Amino acid sequence: MVADFWVTGLQPHAVSAITGTGTGEMLDALAELLPPPTGLEQDDAEEQPLAVAIVGRPNVGKSSLLNAIAGEERSIVCDLSGTTRDAVDTRVTLPGGQRLTLIDTAGIRKRSRVADSPDGAEQLSVDRAMRAVRRADVAVLVIDAVEGVTQQDFRLSELFASEGKSVVVVVNKWDRVDPRIWSVEKMAENVKTQLRHVSWASVVCTSAISGRHVEDVLEAVLDAGKQHRRRVPTATLNMVLREATQWKAPPTQRGSLRKGRIYYATQAG
């Protein structure tokens, strides 16, 4: 029947409204024919800067890392924990032309410790840090190389995964680690094992104070941002969906013999 429509000079798309077969290809064809958005300002039409939230426990070197990336002192650096109280945005343009919005956040302690703290400003700072994570494209989790991965680091990685963020793990204060015990490869393997929710994330060992390997952090952030903004065609998603449902069919509905049915998938947001 589809062949009969070729005589009209149009390109037909065979679909099944019941099973959803072919709807992904049809949506891709429709998207190609849509006109570009009108009424946008030039700045809006350009790609927005990559939003990067620098997150971690207090006094792990978040502000030092931001200053090293920015090339100047934008955040206060102090040995006392809790120096950064607010989520501070810093715009940076890299030599290659890439634009970043670096978000330096307050150190996030365990919820019980925050609740027991007499300082009400700390809870507000933590809330702002969590909001900063949600508006970021990439979350940079900074951990202390000497202390290693803590339970709070694990919980933060769990949050990043649930929010669907690209993640880069930065092991800071690498200059304080005994090289006879730890190598970069061994540390990366250890971090990936303990942070299983983001075991796919890049791990970079650095010293923010000296600037050692900061360029590796930038490279990992840019790559993570590229992956985060990647668009997957609807046809590709539906091909994967079909293979997945053929391998394992959706479960039956409770109290019914009818199985659930997924018609099609498309990337949104």
TrEMBL record:
One Pfam family it belongs to: KH_dom-like
Superkingdom of this protein's organism: Eukaryota
Entry GO terms, CC: chloroplast
Keyword field: GTP-binding, Nucleotide-binding, Repeat, Ribosome biogenesis
GO biological-process terms attached to the record: ribosome biogenesis
InterPro entries: AAA+_ATPase, G_ENGA, GTP-bd, KH_dom-like, KH_dom-like_a/b, P-loop_NTPase, Small_GTP-bd
GO function terms (MF aspect): GTP binding
Sequence ranges assigned to domain EngA-type G in this UniProt record: 50-229
NCBIfam families xref list: small_GTP (TIGR00231)
Record's protein name: EngA-type G domain-containing protein
